[in-house]
Design brief:
The two termini are 14 Å apart. The protein has 18 helices and 16 strands. Strand 15 and strand 16 form a beta hairpin. Helix 10 packs across helix 11, helix 10 packs across helix 14 and helix 12 packs across helix 13. It has 404 residues and is an alpha/beta fold. 45% of the residues lie in helices and 20% in strands.
């Protein structure tokens, strides 16, 4: 599957390879991702090349929901075919039926994945799937288009950073059209998804919180301050942030908390995950607008973190590190209990490393030490630190993790 950029440049989605491998290995797949990120297009591309035939069901369509009035009989009659079910969270009772059908297919010798299930609310969907389909499904998250995918199409990272990675925002004819699409996207979430997933939470309050998080991109989560501004309780703020995290719109980056004998910060950092949505929430249309705004640095940091996490694979766990006396690492990648990489993020093409970063790396005993800069190429900076472009680092991490 590809997205076409101005009619002539294709942007392949790397997650397709992962999904096809897992289906071929015998796992059904739950594909998670926010709305409009390309899940349906990706699923249709996989379906179009499935050798055994495919049945595609969109549970937002009444006609497709009616086909599942007797879901057990209907799905058992599709033996040997891949079944794609979009908006699966709209039919939570379906998971129990799927368990029986998957087990029956396996007992009959079907060694290929039977189902590709698409949803846009990760926590709720994973809870439902885990309760009924434990050991029967594999989870794949489809994020926004990242620098590895875009690089093959030619445009530089600045366009992706400013517009974000939602395909229709990235592919818009102009910055103004892209901004309008993102505004409409935000409005649709507030008018449709918030009432659907959290009917008791006022959409207007979520809108204000979302904007406040964009203004404070990459800062420590201060529930009391947010609660005071929103005129709600701190526990309410926690629920609201949970909702945005569940909808895959916000990342809560936890602090690294190993036993190093230091006074460490305990609050998580919060990022609006897509940089284009950050800029839309702040009404910033162009590169010039963003560079002239205080959010430029934090926005770039969040953009880099999302790309690195996407490339790092499931076995690397992301954190940040900060002590009470100011030593800090923007991103820590831990695997198997050891710190594989400590990463500082600088938009400058000639970055300078702080003393606090060096001391933090020594405490963490980081195996690899990087400074991601805004230019191209890589070079040594001394004391085991390498300056590296975002694209080169994501390609390296992806190769090390064995994933596309």
């Amino acid at each position: 599957m590809t997205f076409d950029l101005h009619g002539h440049v294709s942007i392949p989605r790397l997650a397709r390879v992962v999904i096809e491998r897992r289906l071929a290995s015998g796992s059904s797949v739950v594909l998670l991702g926010p709305r409009q990120v390309g899940k349906t297009t990706l699923a249709r591309g996989i379906a179009a090349e499935s050798p055994g035939g495919v049945v595609y069901l969109d549970l937002e369509r009444p006609s497709d929901r009616r086909r599942l009035d007797d879901a057990d009989a209907f799905l058992r009659g599709l033996e040997g075919r891949l079944v794609v079910i979009d908006e699966i969270h709209r039919a939570p009772d379906l998971f129990a039926v799927l368990r029986g059908v998957i087990d029956e297919r396996r007992a009959g010798g079907d060694r290929k994945g039977s189902f590709l299930l698409l949803g846009s609310a990760s926590l709720d969907l994973m809870r439902q799937a885990t309760e009924s389909l434990a050991g029967r499904v594999s989870y794949v998250e489809l994020g926004a288009i990242d620098v590895r995918e875009l690089h093959s199409a030619g445009p530089g990272a600045d366009r992706l950073w400013i517009r974000g990675g939602f395909p229709l925002a990235l592919l818009a004819a102009s910055d103004a059209d892209s901004l309008q699409w993102r505004r409409d996207f935000i409005r649709s979430y507030l008018e449709r998804d918030v009432p659907m997933f959290a009917p008791r939470i006022p959409a207007e309050t979520i809108a204000r919180l979302w904007s406040m998080l964009a203004h404070g991109q990459g800062t420590l989560l201060n529930q009391s301050r947010l609660a005071s501004s929103l005129l709600v309780s701190a526990p309410a703020v926690a629920r609201y942030v949970d909702l945005l995290v569940d909808l895959l719109l916000v990342r809560r980056l936890r602090p690294w908390s190993g036993n190093v004998g230091k006074r460490l910060v305990r609050s998580p950092k919060v990022f609006v995950r897509d940089s284009g949505l950050v800029h839309a929430l702040l009404d910033l249309e162009s590169l010039h607008d963003v560079l002239g705004h205080p959010v430029a640095g934090p926005s770039w940091e969040g953009f880099v973190i999302e790309n690195i996490v996407n490339a790092s694979g499931d076995r690397r766990v992301p954190y940040f590190y900060r002590t009470a006396d100011g030593a800090e690492v923007d991103l820590v990648l831990e695997r198997g209990g050891r710190v594989e990489a400590a990463i500082e993020i600088k938009r400058s093409s000639a970055p300078v490393v702080s003393r606090g970063f060096h001391s933090a790396c020594d405490v963490l005993d980081a195996e690899q030490r990087y400074v991601v800069h805004g230019g191209e190429g890589e070079w040594p900076m001394g004391r085991g630190v390498t300056a590296i472009s975002l694209r080169l680092l994501t390609e390296r991490l992806s190769a090390e993790s064995g994933r596309p």
